[in-house]
């Protein structure tokens, strides 16, 4: 059972105002309802008792110390763009907004790092790096996501094929523990075997271990050239089967995404974003970065030849910023398009070994159709992270939708496990996938997760009821 948390009263509200500023504190009905949920309200809409915007690590520390001593739950929140129901106050208490802690410090060009507070946007961090000719590769797709949110969810995104995920770029973290202590995990060094690397444990912990207040990130030299190929196929199966062909080439793609024509049409119909290639039942969108135009040409020529040999109908080249932007804007608009085109959505974002992508996608379509659910698989084919999008159609009752999607999810996760995959590739567990984690990882691993949570947060006050439970 969750800890018997204290219901906040006027004394608690007064204390939070005293260590911050009354103009940055809202209570009860004065709290905007947009802070009750993240981008997937289907996974939980829960109001906080108090909402506070913090400016410094000292304010965070004072609030956490008070909450710890008084058994008040706290949820740290960034931009609220998560897709797992993680940034909401399931048991009331305090919502701690970090978005005004948004400073980006000057880029350290000697160490090739940048330090930022959690409220800075990923796009702003990338822009700061670009100004000095450096590159921050993680690109989850949501341009309004905060860097702090990306750290605690280990955001992946489309460039993970070549560059990896957020964890690969985190050098060190400053954080506030649940009891209010300010700590530092690792430092700005290239390698470190000084005890446990707790930093890597915090990355992806979904805000249940500590509150990140500052992070130092590794940067790399910016690529000089980039282009995108749009490759249509006459069937989804042929499209997916081409992915391992491209990955076996000596040129590593930056991103490999797949879309079915139905999804492309949904985006065009609802958002008026047009993919420049009109043919094919499914398409691959493949990006290459290179240090020279000659290298880029070699990449594209090799990929085009391999794709045509594998059954592609054509290969279209987008080699200007405008053309590249138009292609990727369609891919980025998938979630928004589906929300506009259906009365409800459910998704699993499993990740499987890349050699098993085609097998999972084929199985996913069969599983969902067997339960009467419209399904649109898409996603990061280059790293095996597949978004199986289930769309609720008009006429389905709440009970029919809930029963059908639950059955689909159970079978989809079982299929992922059978293929050697994992339950979530980038969206996390949050509140939306709670019931599926323990059966997937087993009792022993689940207890280990609990022990880690207790080591950081013995009173269970930080983002309680997310990822793991103690009921």
Structure description:
The protein is of the alpha+beta class. The chain is built from 16 helices and 17 strands. It has helices at 10-19, 57-70, 122-130, 147-153, 160-163, 198-202, 236-241, 243-247, 261-271, 293-309, 321-332, 334-341, 357-370, 398-418, 434-441, 443-456; strands at 25-27, 50-53, 74-77, 94-97, 113-116, 134-135, 170-176, 182-185, 211-218, 220-221, 225-233, 255-260, 282-290, 316-318, 344-348, 374-380, 385-392. It has a seven-stranded antiparallel beta sheet, with helices on both faces. A hairpin with a 4-residue loop joins strand 16 and strand 17. The termini are close together.
What does the secondary structure layout of this molecule look like, with pairings?
Blueprint: H1 10-19, E1 25-27, E2 50-53, H2 57-70, E3 74-77, E4 94-97, E5 113-116, H3 122-130, E6 134-135, H4 147-153, H5 160-163, E7 170-176, E8 182-185, H6 198-202, E9 211-218, E10 220-221, E11 225-233, H7 236-241, H8 243-247, E12 255-260, H9 261-271, E13 282-290, H10 293-309, E14 316-318, H11 321-332, H12 334-341, E15 344-348, H13 357-370, E16 374-380, E17 385-392, H14 398-418, H15 434-441, H16 443-456
Parallel strand pairs: 2-4, 3-4
Antiparallel strand pairs: 1-2, 5-9, 6-10, 7-8, 7-9, 11-13, 11-14, 12-13, 12-16, 15-17, 16-17
Helix pairs in contact: 9-12, 13-14, 15-16
